[in-house]
Write a structure and sequence with these properties.
The structure holds two protein chains of two kinds. Chain A is an alpha/beta fold. Chain A is built from 15 helices and 18 strands. Helix content of chain B is 28%, strand content 16%. Classes of the chains: A alpha/beta, B alpha/beta. Chains A and B meet through helix 1, strand 1, helix 2, helix 3 and helix 5 of A and helix 5, helix 6 and helix 7 of B.
Chain lengths: 420, 164
């Protein structure tokens, strides 16, 4: 069969259907893996039972864990955890429970979403797995209940937006600054229903951590998926993690049809800060430097990896964090925690005055802990600054990179990381 | 029915804040809908009221608690210029009907409108505002009575490998 003129997204669906597929078609496609966590999982399980679900489509294809409210922060949260554990036991699903970390990081680390696969998660940031060349998208709990029963879901095959990135980042500028700049350019709904395909030398030179940051935030432009065609960096990442890993070749054809093509050059890109209360309100750090902050959060599925903590530790150096800010550092997973611990970053953060918490969603969840009072300001490496996202609707959240977060935490106000 | 008008980019954190996500009962969720951003909604919304938004309604988190909270408040229709993708599917799955109406921006808060589903328009004073039809595959789900009913009634689904 000849798939000429297709995007990677169309090719993944074509592979599933065994025939050519073009954007706009609606297909009932088989799912390779499905992820549920403690917030959206319980409702998905209830819906599965309501649909007369008996056995899940394939226990080995279900990823089940707890990451939003751990350790349980309330009795209802603890009850949800019990419900999830019972389901895992009943269905013979491997349960990562609260041991491994944030769902998206764990899915990548365990090699549960591989190039060319279709993966769904009951969480909007599921699009992160596109960093590994999977077509991955977030769905609601009822759709997930359906997936648990049938192992398939209706998809409208999305059109793609080609985002070509060139140039080398300046010191202390990186993937988060790039994706905030792209969000500013495309807007909060600029990629709605579309697949954002990231290409170009800057992406090819980017390590997996940065690629995950970019694909993670595709949803902040409304995208159905973010995807980076797999290359040697992708294959090396998975070959270490997956037995009998198969290196597949997958890229868009030169004559593939895109809904939109965008070029970005990062050479002169400043560190970006998204100001309240929308993700697409990115500013150059110079324009918001000096803004008072009460809390700094370094972590989340967007920026809680070893490389992110390394960048923050480098900026911190031998200094201390300002006594006027609460600094919360949360590695994205147990693996990232251990690497950071062994590299000495955790010790350095604690010495500098930070609270280091065990891997979980933390303040980004807006309910478990680290909430803001009215009038307070948070600077966060997470993905959303919506009004009320981290507590009071009268609080403000600014988004930035780990480098900017660390520099700002030293001085107690938003600070250009290139100047510290 | 009374219109509750909202602006652009209404996110699911605004519809239902993260700290209430251990709740699954629609009525209880409804008591916290738009908490902190529009408190009078949960107090005054009545059965049959209609939520009208601008563009990108329901962006952000995939939490189905958001459409459930609106459903629990007695809302049956959400009219907006555009919807975020996950919210759109979730709304249909929980029995709310999201209607894409390019002229939604003209509808004023507190006004009375009626939705003529079969006729395909919204009656707003003297005006008739048209809305886009729901895609066929989703209409099939609505016709089945929702995704739960659609899924309950069958043992297997028509995979793209086997059909077309």
């Amino acid at each position: 069969m000849n798939y000429m003129g297709s995007t990677v997204t169309e090719k993944i669906f074509a592979g599933k259907c065994g025939r050519e597929v073009t954007a706009g078609e609606v297909v009932m496609a088989e799912i390779d893996a499905a992820m549920i966590h403690d917030i959206t999982g319980p409702l998905a399980i209830k819906k599965f039972y309501e649909m007369d679900g008996d056995m899940v489509f394939n226990p080995e294809s279900v990823i089940l864990l707890l990451d939003h409210q751990i350790p349980a922060d309330s009795i209802p949260a603890a009850e949800n955890h019990v419900y999830m554990r019972r389901f895992a036991e009943e269905q013979q699903i491997q349960n990562y429970d609260l041991r491994e970390g944030i769902c998206h990081q764990v899915v990548m680390e365990k090699g549960r979403a591989l190039p060319g696969q279709i993966v769904v998660g009951a969480d909007s940031h599921t699009c992160m797995y596109g960093a590994g060349g999977a077509f991955a998208t977030g769905i609601g709990s009822t759709d997930m209940g359906f997936v648990l029963k049938f192992g398939a879901l209706y998809f409208r095959v999305p059109e793609s937006i080609k985002v070509a990135v060139s140039g080398s980042f300046a010191e202390r500028v990186g993937a988060k600054d790039l994706i905030l700049a792209i969000a500013k350019d495309l807007g909060a709904d600029g990629a709605t229903y579309k697949s954002l395909e990231f290409l170009g030398e800057t992406i090819r030179n980017m390590e997996m951590a940065g690629r995950m940051t970019c694909c993670n935030m595709a949803i902040e432009m409304g995208a159905k998926a973010g995807i980076i065609p797999p290359d040697e960096i992708t294959h090396e990442y998975f070959a270490k993690r997956v037995k009998n890993y198969e290196r597949i070749h997958l890229e868009s054809d030169e004559d593939a049809v895109y809904a939109l093509k965008k070029d970005f050059d990062v050479t002169d890109l400043s560190p970006q800060v998204a100001v309240p209360h929308n993700v697409d309100l990115a500013r150059d750090v110079e324009d918001v430097a000096g803004t008072h902050i009460d809390q700094v959060f370094i972590g989340s599925c967007t920026n809680g990896r070893f490389e992110d903590l390394q960048e923050a530790a480098r900026v911190l150096g031998e200094r201390k964090f300002s006594d006027s800010v609460r600094v919360i550092v949360i590695p994205a997973s147990r693996e990232e925690y251990l690497k950071s611990l062994r590299a000495g970053f955790i010790e350095r953060f604690v010495e500098a005055g930070a609270l280091v918490e065990a891997p979980c969603c933390g303040p980004c969840m807006g309910g478990a802990f680290g909430l803001l009072a009215p009038g307070e300001v948070s600077l966060s490496t997470s993905n959303r600054n919506f009004r009320g996202r981290q507590g009071s609707t009268e609080a403000s959240v600014y988004l930035c990179s780990p480098a900017t977060a660390a520099a700002s935490a030293i001085f107690g106000e938003i600070t250009d990381p290139r100047e510290v | 029915m009374r219109v509750w008008k909202f602006g652009d980019n209404i996110d699911t954190d605004a519809i239902i804040p993260g700290r209430y996500l251990t709740i699954y009962d629609p009525r209880e969720l409804a008591s916290h809908a738009f908490e902190g951003t529009r408190d009078e909604f949960s107090k005054n919304a009545r059965e049959g009221d209609i939520v009208v938004g601008g563009s990108n309604f329901g962006c952000g988190s995939s939490r189905e608690h958001a459409p459930l909270a609106l459903s629990g408040a007695g809302i049956h229709f959400i009219i907006a210029q555009s919807f975020a993708r996950i919210f759109y599917r979730n709304a249909i799955n929980v029995g709310l009907l999201p209607l894409i109406c390019p002229d939604a921006g003209e509808i004023r808060d507190g006004s009375e409108i009626s939705v003529r589903i079969r006729e395909g328009y919204i009656e707003y004073g003297e005006r008739r505002l048209t809305f886009e039809p729901v895609p066929e595959f989703l209409q099939n789900i609505i016709d089945a009575g929702g995704l739960v009913e659609f899924g309950r009634d069958r043992k297997e689904v028509p995979l793209c490998t086997k059909s077309q």
